[in-house]
Structures are given as C-alpha cells and as structure tokens.
Amino acid sequence: MVQKVTVIIPTFNEEKTIEQIIRKVRPYADEVLVAGARKSTDRTIEIAKRLGAATVIDDGRGKGSGMRFGARKSKGDIIVFIDADGSHIPRDIPKLVRPIKQGRADLVVASRMLGGSEELHTKISEIVRMNLGLMINLVINYRFGQSISDSQNGFRAIRRKVFLDLDTKATKFNIETEISMKCAKMGYKILEIPSRELRRKHGKSGIKLWKTGWYYMGTIIKNIW
User: 190 - beta bridge partners?
Assistant: First the structure.
C-alpha cells in the first residue's frame, strides 16, 4: 500500500522564509500544509496559498495547537513536521520517512546530537536549552527504557494515526516532549536519524526558558506515570 506523506510547517510570522521552505520540501511530499498562527501579522499564509500549499489557522494558543490543527486537516498517512526558520535540512525527509514506511518505526526524530548543530553551542541560552533537552532525554530513557538522544527536535516524522492516538494536550514548544514521552509510554517504536541543524535563516527562537520552562516540567510530570 502506498503511504502518502504530508509535510506540516508550523509558522508564526515567517513570510521571509516560508516560500523557500515550501519549495524545498515539496519534492519529498504528497502534500505540503502550512499551519499558521492566529496571532501572526504578516503574509505567511498568503504566500503559502499562492504557492499551492494547503493551509490552516490555529486557535492562537501556540505551536502545539498549530501542529494538532495541521495533523487533523492533513491527508497523508505519515506526517513530517519541519520548522519554518530554515534550520532543518529538507533533503533528510526521506530518511525520516523510510523507517515508518518499512514498518520499523512509528516515530522518527532527526537528532541534532547525532548530526550536529550550529545553534546549540554558541550562546549561554543555547547551552542551557541543550542541557534541559539532555535532562528530558535522561528522564524518558530511564523511565521507559529508551535510548533517545534528542527528544526535543521539531524535525520529525510520525504516523498520522499514531499522532492522533496520542491525544496531545501541549499548546507550546513542549509538544515535542509530550509526543516523545507518550510514544515511549504507549509502546510505539521510536527511531532517530542523524540530521544537522543549521543556524536559522531569520528571526530568533521563540523558546524563552524562563517563561516556557514550567510548561516542560508540567508535561514531564503529567506523562511520567
């Protein structure tokens, strides 16, 4: 059976990069879907529509909500999530999708720990983020018997049916933590592939640990048992 692939691009004011991202992911997708943030104030969705991408507007609560809105509207059997800032490498999409098509995985994460990163080691805030991610990896690995190196990367592929079955609740950047933990807890097969993270082409990370760190902690507590 042919398994179709939908690439979902969560966005918040990404008009400067969205055209390039859509064009780069299109060769690897049966469907490209841009999930726009309700709070966006730029032309991201207008550009996406002009390029023929499917679009959906979230409820304004954050990245997690946008990913759910996109997944519900998507038509593919496999969903690939990729950020719109240009930090991920679209040509790695086939490597993410292949283990799922072969029946070897339900979730495949592009690991920056295995592939390297231009963003995680150059500033104190980035090093703090990296260490928080490593701590979350340790929790998941110890609690659920996994060997995950990068539970937080937003560049990942997952069976659409599995994603919907997880019944995620996270509304912000903690969505990746929830997906990783629930897949491990529910017995879904998780694999990683090496993928290099590039420095973003535009803008700054929306992750502010002093503001969002509590969301990560809440997600861990809710899903550890």
Answer: 107
Neighbours of 27 (CB within 10 A): 10
For 144-208, the DSSP string reads HT---S-TT-S-EEEEHHHHHHH-----STTHHHHHHHHHHHTT--EEEEE-PBPPPSSS-----
Structural domains in the chain?
Answer: 5-223 (3.90.550.10)
Q: Per the structure block, which two tokens stand in for 153? A: 């990367």
Band (214; pLDDT cuts 50, 70, 90): confident
DSSP letter for 117, please.
B
Average pLDDT of the residues in 90-106:
98
